[in-house]
Amino acid sequence: xxxxxxxxxxxxxxxxxxxxxxxxxxxxxxxxxxxxxxxxxxxxxxxxxxxxxxxxxxxxxxxxxxxxxxxxxxxxxxxxxxxxxxxxxxxxxxxxxxxxxxxxxxxxxxxxxxxxxxxxxxxxxxxxxxxxxxxxxxxxxxxxxxxxxxxxxxxxxxxxxxxxxxxxxxxxxxxxxxxxxxxxxxxxxxxxxxxxxxxxxxxxxxxxxxxxxxxxxxxxxxxxxxxxxxxxxxxxxxxxxxxxxxxxxxxxxxxxxxxxxxxxxxxxxxxxxxxxxxxxxxxxxxxxxxxxxxxxxxxxxxxxxxxxxxxxxxxxxxxxxxxxxxxxxxxxxxxxxxxxxxxxxxxxxxxxxxxxxxxxxxxxxxxxxxxxxxxxxxxxxxxxxxxxxxxxxxxxxxxxxxxxxxx
Length: 407
Description:
By secondary structure, the protein is α+β, with helices and mostly antiparallel strands. The chain is 31% helix and 20% strand. The chain contains 9 helices and 23 strands. A hairpin with a 7-residue loop joins strand 19 (289-292) and strand 20. It is elongated, with a radius of gyration of 29 Å. The N and C termini lie close together (8 Å).
């Protein structure tokens, strides 16, 4: 057997072994009271592992019968829900601790590279075996696999430990790269949030001046209603879903689930001309800002082309793109600061109304300052979008390696 992708210099077929042949079950119990080791689980009472690594908890329970788990021991929960018959097999990266006897705990023998098996178990090639060999038993909501069956889990491994090490190293580097990329994304978001708080003055301030600003712009900002800035507004409507001829046409139909990015280029649903004409839905011009009034209150997007929207949106048109882009920043900040929450009417669902949005007060700078802030926030948003794409691409590479470096 050979993997689809492998390093040069290795051409030997991989060997098939059983988990029990390359591992040893941990049977050492904690017989010295619960104060000796921390409890390494986030749900000891149910024995369920969700996280990549285990929580380090001081739980006031008797752990005399708990197994002692050392760093680099593997942990598996063989008793999980029938709907998800294979939980994660995770390696313990924390200090020595104890875990519930509900878990199956094992260590890989010294002849093998532990890191290779950590990434092997992150992949899903072993799931089929668990699904086929588990047993729901008398309880219909539970699913378990016996120790002796679990030890028969078939595993393919390289004959040379050098190849095992290389496979671990490339996957480890990808993981490290992902961590750095995600950290960079968080820092970029923090910069944006810092600018929200400091480059735009508070509406409660006596003098509307931001804490930080471009040196050449020293004028006061003005206080204004949102309706004084945009040109026109409208809501929308939803054609009857019972009439299938109302849907599937060439008219994009905006719903809450489409608000994922600043610019909205396509929608999940479309309307026919007949659907538009037989409902209160309206065509909203390209370049408009759509603000969610229901469900995900405060989410916003800019329409890249003419679209119809449901009644869940308050749509604003502008006669100036610079003003529109700045209002987008203000509304994004309002959402971040949870300003909409105090305006929400509580009924069957939380929602805003058009009157409250029109009367929403904002602070507004001079036109030149506005253009400078637009450019600054646009650059930050571009960097954030690029970073998201980099993370997606790296994750795709990670999944490709997990699927093709292993058998």
